[in-house]
Amino acid sequence: MGKNKKKKVVPFRINVLFFCVFILFSTMILRIGVIQIVYGEDYTNEVERTEQVNVSTSVPRGKVYDRNYNAVVDNQPLNAITYTRSNSTTQEERLEVAKKLAEIIEMDTSKITERDMKDYWIITRPELAEKKLTEEDLKKNDEQKKEDNWLYELQLQRITEEDLRDISEQELKVLAIKREMDSGYALTPQIIKNVDVTVKEFAYVSEHLDTLPGVDITTDWKRNYVFDSTLRTLLGNISSSNEGIPRERLDYYLSRDYNRTDRVGKSYLEYEYEEVLQGQKEKVRNITDKAGNLIETETISEGKSGKDLVLTVDMELQREVEKIIEEELINAKKKSGTGLLDRAFVVMMDPRNGEVLSMAGRQFVKNDEGKTELQDFALGAMTTSYTMGSAVKGATVLTGYETGVIKPGSVLLDEPLYIKDSQPKKSYQTMGKIDDLTALQRSSNVYMFKTAIKIGNGKYEPNGPLPIETKAFTTMRNYFSQFGLGVKTGIDLPNEATGFTGQDFTPGLLLDLAIGQYDTYTPLQLAQYVSTIANDGYRMRPQIVKEIREPSPKEGLGTVVKAVDAEVLNRLDMDQSQVERVQEGFRRVMQEQRGTAYSYFRGAEYNPAGKTGTAQSFYDGPIKDKFLAPTYNLTLVGYAPHDNPEIAFSVVVPWAYDRAKNQHPINNLIGKRIMDKYFELKAGQNEEKALNEQKEVINGTE
Q1: 25 vs 50: CA distance, rounded Å
Q2: Which CATH architecture has domain 46-84+186-205+215-310?
Q3: Keywords on this record (predicted)?
Q4: Residues 6+ apart with CB under 8 A from 178
Q5: How far is CA 575 from the centre of its chain?
Q6: What mean pLDDT comes out for the span 208-225?
Q7: pLDDT digits over 581-638, tens only?
Q8: Any idea which residues carry the catalytic annotation?
Q9: Are 440 and 586 in contact (CB under 8 A)?
Q10: Domain chopping of the chain, boundaries
């Protein structure tokens, strides 16, 4: 009996459960039916009514500071008038807005092309444009099913100069405005005017935005290079708002969420650090109806200015170095008696970490008015190369040590070498028996010649031929490359030159290679070479950027995102004692009598070391009718203090003179003055730092 009762209860519960499920399904079906039947059309219309389009807008680029946090490149704010067109805006509507704007603002018309004028003429004179087509044209178009724009092209071809003269000055303003409006992309703000927007124009447009659909006012920016021409060629350029992304880089940048009209770095520092400086764009979502009319705009993410760069360069030192180069160039130009001298370069870097404190170059150039003026050519320190002469003899001596053909203290006879079928090869004076230190101190060519002959397993016999193994060229170049000579230095800038490597293996040219008169090197390579010697054989990668920082518009400098670490590229494959031997030879050049730079650097409290250079060369500059004229390059490398180097430098003056009687010591004069200035500025900075620390202590005790 109990079992039967239990069996009856279970089916009852199941029935209740089924009933509940039935009620739920019925409710859901009823709801779906109401949505589809009653509100379905409304929802369908809403979906068809709206589309969402995401748009990115540009933000100011990051700033650039020098190592002392002085602004080098920043952004100057500009009042700007923009236009944003919808997908449904017609030509006629844009023309009407342009006419209204032309009554309010002045507009530059110089960029208008003939094609622009013809298009405008057709739009504004449709009846006259129709008369440019004949019945035969229309019939031919229908019968032959010509392309859609065939008739339009015929109209363009038949518009005469007289037709275009009918366009008034006021219409040209309208055209200039409409031209900018048409060049933008749908739903993306396009700058109509951002240069010389007057307060009156800005205010008037602001007051009449309700009658100017699509027009808005905003704050734009332009790049401001604070120090005018100082370091200008290395800082590079950015594209204008009219240029946008250069065509050759378009696909690359579009794949990285850029807009076609974005301003981007086109050269050197601005180009190399583009993705750091560009910043994070503001992203907005434009909601439009099916016809393309804008309904509303909502911000997806806020924009953020580009990150800031802190350079290794000391702009105070940079400006002083450029001033010194200018003064010495002008002075030497007057005294050298050659019209070929037109440029000089200086590179100063910390040999311990590769930080470039100054990279300067000045060049005489004819301006647009035909007058000669000195312009910035810092770029040439890494993109042009020259024979450097005896300045590279330190590399030759060290190569001799490492190959075992000479050793520290080796004595060779400095004497003229008479090689069959060639001019005598000799030093500037016959020195007799000398060791390696004297060879560096007094700059013996013959000591280097004989070292190179030994490297090539050659044997010198007066008036006889000079057989040398051609692999000696490779051997010497391989060792030279350890110093950075003939290879890229690795600096964080694009388009660095490596120099010229001669392909003629005539034995006499190996001797020229040993004294820096065959292959060519850049002033930057020469600075890296002497830095490697100063730094006990460690070759450091030169760096122009010290830090990357977050932007901080209110405080000026944000937090450090990345500090660029010093990088050792290689260590000389040579004993430390051998490097120290060359260091001693360089010290004698500047600190002991008979050193080739002693008369200029004697008594210098900063205890310098270095090496002078003079190279016979051939002119290959801008004066075409002087091409390959024989001339001389002057160079100087050095560092200080000799026992604990903190600064290394190279001075390169190509085509300094063309005859011995006109020789001018511009390399030594520049070298001495830049080193004096470096230590003078350092003393001043240390004094200022001490005063500031003293003030902080005083303020802390009050």
Answers
A1: 33
A2: Alpha-Beta Complex (3.90)
A3: Cell membrane, Cell shape, Cell wall biogenesis/degradation, Membrane, Peptidoglycan synthesis, Transmembrane, Transmembrane helix
A4: 94, 95, 98, 120
A5: 38
A6: 89
A7: 999 999 999 999 999 999 999 999 999 999 999 999 999 999 889 888 999 999 999 9
A8: 390
A9: yes
A10: 46-84+186-205+215-310, 88-184, 316-686
